[in-house]
Structure formats: C-alpha cells, structure tokens
Design goal:
The chain is α/β, with parallel strands linked by helices. It is 26% helix and 19% strand. A hairpin with a 3-residue loop joins β3 (100-103) and β4 (107-114). The protein is elongated, with a radius of gyration of 24 Å.
C-alpha cells in the first residue's frame, strides 16, 4: 500500500495532464499493434543508430506520461530519487530527449531521436509506443506558392495520386521518405499602403455613418465590408447593414473566447478594444516559436483572422475575446509538433465556452495522423469547437489534413461577383477560385477580399493600431464561422461542439451557391450569422423564394 501511494504521488508530481485518447487514422510506424511485419528489422548500423530524426512519438495510454516526464527531465538527482518508484533503471534517464510532452489531446512527445534512443525508449517503457511519424515543416505561404497543377481535372487527378502515395509512405515508416510536406495558412494577401481606419468609436472603418451602440446591434457598412453585409441576410441585394442581434438576444459573443492558433496577434489594434474602453479583448496564450508568452504577430495572418472573428467594426462577434497561440514565425514557418503542442495547450488552459481556429493545413497528398488525432481529441474529449480551413488547391478537401477531420467544422470560401457595384436580387454566390471542395466541406463563408486588421509589415506599409488590409482564401472564411459559433455559445454556453455545428449548419442558407460554381459532392450551405434566432432556423428549412 505504501508503495502504491508513493507511486500515485509521483504521478501527480510529474503528469499534470487531462484525459483524452488518440483516434483512428494512419500512422507512420506501429509498435506491437495490428499485423506484424513479415520479418524483424535488422539491428541498425552504428552510423544509423547515431543519426537523429525529428519525430512525434505517440503512446497508447496516459499512464506512461509521468515516467516519460521523469526520463526526459534534466535533474540526475531527481531521476535517481524517483526512478525506483517507477521501476526505471539508471539507463532510462534521457535528458533533453523531449522537445514537447503531449498529455491532453494525444499522449507522447516530440524531439530529435536516434534509432538507439528509440530502442531504449521501448525497453524502458515496454508496450507504451503506439505510433510515430516524422515531424513536418510548416509555414505560412502566400496563395501563389500553393501547389496547383492545371487544369482543374488535372489538379484533382494529381491530388488523388499524391494522397495515395502519402498514405503509402506513412504506412511504410521513415525509410525512403520524400521531401517533407508543408503546412500552409490558406490565404492570398495583397500588400497595401496600410489603410488607416478612423477611431472605432466614430465612423469606424466602414465608411458609413457612426456605428450603432451595442444595444441596437446594427452596424452601417461601407462596400469594403461586403462580407458582414452578406452574413446577416438570406439573399442579395446587399443592404449596407450588419444586424447581429435583436431586442431579445445579445448576439455579440460576450463571454466566449476564440483561440487563434496562428502567427500571433497585434493585441493593441483598435479592433480588439472593448465597448466603452478598457483593456483589450485580445490576450497572449503561449508562443511555441520562441517558447515564451509573447505572441506578438510579425507576419500579420493571425491578426487578420482574429479581427475578422471578433473585431469591433470588422468582426462578427464584437464582444468576444481572443487568445493568440503562436506557432508560425515571422517568415510563416513552423512545425506540426508545435501545432499539436498548441492544441494540447488549449486543451489544458482554455476558458469555456471556447472555439479554436486553424486557418492552415498540410499540402495536398500529405497526411499527419498526429495532427488529425489532436484536432479530433480537442473536439470529442475536451468539448471545444474547432473551425478548419478547407484549403486553397482547388481539389477535394478530404485530401487535406486537418480539413478531413469529421469532428471539425471545415469551411470553404465563397464570393459575390457584384459585391462592390450593386448586387442584384436573387444573385447567386460564387466560390473562391482556389477553394477546396468535396464531401468534407461543412459549409461556405465569405473569403474573398476580406477587409480586416493589418498586423504585419509584409501586408501593409505602416503597421499600427489603426492599420487595415485585404486578404483572400479559406483562411479568411474560417473566422466568420468561428465568430458565429461564439455568438451561439454566448446564449448557450453549455453546448457541445455537435450542438454548435448543428445550430450553424441548421441555420445556414441553403442553395445560395450557383449551380455552375458548386463543385460536385459539396454541401450548398452558406453561413448565416443570425443563428440564435428561432426564425433563422425555421427559414433555413429550404431555399427562400
């Protein structure tokens, strides 16, 4: 009994983790599960044993995490004291092995590992290892850098070949792997001269009369804000207003938090101000690029996304809060391991009700089971709604991770051809020219020429708290859906992700994407912002006349 108590105490000291379970999918290499290989692998040569591979290693169960934390810890004295409690030999001390330890969405670690260290890990933790995959380079790439073979049919055919090849490579393990695939933020940005918006408590950035007080819940819009104008009405023509509530509802997302896993955020931008002044509604979570809590945005993508979700004038949920979790550096580069670490951090530290945005994904034909498992666990185990970009390759989104995760709300990007010169009654919406499509898409949201806060010098010449710019892509569609999710959670804070998804999809406008523009097997649903109105849900029973 005494030894059992000591063991439990040591677990509490070392774990600090929540429950969760990895979901099904493809792994790079398996350990003791499924069909064994025809013959055992030969022992590695000395040079191979010393070569490091940047890996993400996933365990079968959370039970092994306290032992792993002890093994990876730097202190020899601490290891010597506690190792007998865990049944570990002195050879099992492997300080510096773990870059990140995952204990909330998946169970495992990432780090640069030699074959000898991997074998030692299996010896020290028998039965622990579930699967492993190579860590992948991730970066924020502009739209014209995305993989896009032409014409359209060639794109789709090549995507299918690439996806099958990607699956085979992952199932065969690390040997003979092709160059590492990349993870992109799905946007197309144009550098501007840094449009300066008026103070948000005056005319705002809309170009129209002063915005109504929050109790009135109506914003008068200029043409540049066509996206908000389109969200609150079933059909064109656009009426120059954004209505985000009624006398009996709130409709601002107050009390909800959106976690933007991205390039950081410029939290002192005027779009993140509170009604009536006070502290910013934007906060820093954790910076996995520099390993500190300063999530300032030097790329600008995260700031643009965050302001579209909660901005005081350019945003959907005008009283919600946002927390930045930074995984992309100033050049837009990062790693899958940092992305999973960010999701693990959100699982452990989020304030409910919460929404997560992932305006990024792996390029077509590449797969990451660990990323898919982490997203699925965040939704299914931790009850957090996750909104994911469909991707910008003009192919089936089911070939892109994590857009292919069923539990996520995967969003494609829509457009309106006459958004700036007078839309006509009954005019159909279009599809962003490079938006991915297919059965993994849950709905469309505006994603072309989206005007929002500028947070990076690559996007606007002058970056300050009143700078704005345009961007396009499925990245920009994501925060519209996240904002509507926040509005719903304000009124129904105990809702599950399934409840949120059901409400958003149930209220979405049906049949608004033109038949000629809609790719096959893609849901013809367009985001409708007034999701908390009973009338909205009733009106969504079929296309309006």
């Amino acid at each position: 009994m005494r030894h059992a108590c000591v063991f439990l105490l040591a677990c509490c000291m070392l774990a600090g983790c929540a429950t969760g379970a990895p979901s099904s999918g493809w792994g790079t290499e398996w350990f003791g599960f499924g069909t064994p290989p025809p013959s055992p692998s030969p022992a590695p040569a000395p040079s191979e044993a010393n070569a490091t591979t940047d890996l993400i290693v996933v365990f079968e169960d959370i039970f092994y995490i306290p032992k792993l934390n002890l093994m990876c810890g730097a202190s020899p004295l601490r290891f010597k004291m506690l190792a007998p409690v865990f049944g570990l030999s002195t050879e099992c001390h492997m300080p510096g092995l773990c870059q990140h330890v995952f204990s909330n969405t998946i169970f495992g670690f990432s780090g640069k590992v030699t074959e000898a260290e991997l074998q030692k890990l299996q010896t020290c933790l028998p039965g622990a290892l579930y699967y492993k995959e190579e860590n992948q380079i991730v970066h924020k790439a502009e739209d014209d850098a995305f993989w896009r073979p032409r014409p359209l049919e060639e794109r789709r055919e090549q995507a299918g070949r690439g996806a099958l090849g990607g699956r085979r490579r992952m199932q065969q393990g690390l040997g003979g792997a092709s160059p590492l695939p990349t993870l992109h933020s799905f946007e197309e940005s144009v550098k501007t001269d840094g449009t300066e918006g008026a103070p948000v408590d005056a005319a705002g950035v809309t170009g129209g009369p002063a915005m109504a007080a929050p109790g009135e819940k109506t914003e008068v819009l200029g043409t540049k804000m066509w996206n908000l104008d389109r969200l609150d009405q079933r059909d064109p023509p656009l009426d120059g207003k954004y209505r985000y509530g009624t006398a009996g509802t709130t409709g601002t997302g107050n009390g909800t938090t959106i976690y933007v896993v991205d390039s950081g955020i410029k939290k002192d931008h005027q779009e993140f101000a509170r009604w009536g002044g006070g502290a910013s509604r934007a906060a820093y979570g954790y910076d996995f690029v520099d390993n500190d809590d300063n999530c300032d945005d030097c790329d600008g993508h995260g700031t643009h996304v965050a302001a579209t979700a909660i901005g005081l004038t350019v945003g959907v949920a005008k009283a919600a809060s946002v927390v930045s979790v930074r995984i992309l550096d100033c050049e837009g580069s990062g790693t899958i391991s940092n992305t999973v670490a960010a999701l693990d951090w959100v699982a452990a530290n989020h304030a409910a009700p919460a929404v997560v945005t992932l305006s990024l994904g792996i390029q077509v034909g590449s797969w990451s089971r660990v990323l898919e498992d982490a997203v699925a666990a965040l939704v299914n185990t931790h009850g957090i709604t996750v909104v994911v970009a469909a991707g910008n390759s003009g192919v089936d989104a089911c070939y892109v991770a994590p857009a292919n995760v069923p539990a996520a709300l995967t969003v494609a990007a829509s457009d309106l051809a006459t958004k700036y010169n007078g839309s006509g009654a009954g005019e159909p919406d279009g599809v962003y020219k490079w938006s991915n499509s297919g059965p993994c898409i849950k709905l469309f949201a505006p994603g072309v020429n989206i005007y929002s806060a500028c947070g990076g010098s690559s996007r606007c010449a002058v970056v300050d708290d009143a700078a704005y710019t345009y961007a396009s892509g499925t990245s920009m569609a994501v925060p519209h859906v996240a904002g509507v999710a926040a509005v719903y959670l304000e009124s129904y804070p105990q809702s599950t992700p399934a409840d949120v998804s059901s409400a958003i999809l149930g209220a979405a406008s049906q049949g608004k994407i033109g038949a000629d523009a809609l790719p096959a097997s893609t849901a013809n649903l367009l985001l409708y912002s007034r999701v908390i109105s009973d009338a909205a849900v009733q009106a969504a029973s079929g296309p309006s006349g």
